[in-house]
Design goal:
85 residues, mainly alpha, two-stranded antiparallel sheet, 3 helices, 12% strand, flat
Length: 85
């Protein structure tokens, strides 16, 4: 049973690594790819009408974000490059 669970976990990690290599960017979770994020709070509707909307801070208005696995891979590559200089 443990071997099957370990094999399944390894397969899931391998598939996620392949997804990070193939498609390193995912849709932003904050604005859901809409590029703008509505304001939140009790007066959000009035403030949005008066002041407009603002670009999403998480994705900087691109609608895309770097996946966590790709961010970890980029960090490890930077460490490896810095260590070999």
């Amino acid at each position: 049973m443990r071997i099957v669970a370990a094999g399944l976990a390894l397969a899931v990690v391998g598939l996620y690594a392949a997804a990070c290599a193939w498609v390193p960017l995912a849709r932003c979770r904050s604005c859901r790819g809409a590029l703008i994020r509505p304001r939140r709070g009790p007066l959000a509707g009035m403030r949005t009408a008066v002041r407009g909307v603002r670009w999403c801070r998480r994705c900087a208005g691109t609608g895309r974000r770097i996946r966590i696995g790709r961010r970890a891979y980029n960090h490890l590559r930077a460490l490896q490059r810095a260590g070999t200089r």
